[in-house]
Design a protein that fits this description.
The protein is α+β, with helices and mostly antiparallel strands and 141 residues long. It has a five-stranded mixed β-sheet with strand order 1-5-4-3-2. The mean pLDDT is 93.
């Protein structure tokens, strides 16, 4: 069962971010979905809105590495991401820069669907590449 959910989640992310297939959200996200991320509004529509924003900002977004563990009603996904900045992102106009960032996402599952979400995003390198943050002295400043 856990391996089935793990494989469904990996396929979900591939469809959503790799193939820009928003119907994957309908199949994997619970209608009562909630997230503590300020970028993701509640529900299926909120998740789709977030996915569209990423698809516009980073159309070639791909997971370079994905580690997913399922334990009971919890799914933990850690990923290293890369994508070219082609649309607005975090208030920054497109730069053409290749952005790299890491995520750790913890989901609670309900009825085999993603129901609750918490995340930690390491976007320091991406924020520097976007010009939102200046590098520390001695690090290319």
């Amino acid at each position: 069962m856990n391996e089935d959910i793990r494989q469904r989640f990996l396929e979900f992310r591939d469809r959503l971010y790799g193939r820009h297939d928003l119907s994957a959200v309908d199949e994997m996200v619970h209608p009562d979905f909630t997230s503590d991320s300020p970028l993701i509004r509640p529900g299926i529509a909120g998740y789709k809105e977030f996915a569209r924003m990423l698809q516009t900002a980073l159309p070639d977004l791909q997971a370079l590495r994905h580690d997913v563990v399922v334990d009971g009603d919890r799914l933990m996904a850690m990923a290293q991401w890369q994508g070219t900045h082609r649309g607005p992102l975090l208030g920054a106009a497109p730069t053409g820069a290749v952005l790299c960032f890491a995520t750790a996402d913890l989901y609670r599952l309900r009825d085999g669907l993603l129901a609750e979400h918490r995340d930690v995003v390491d976007r320091l390198d991406a924020s520097i590449a976007l010009g939102l943050v200046r590098p520390a002295v001695g690090e290319g400043a």
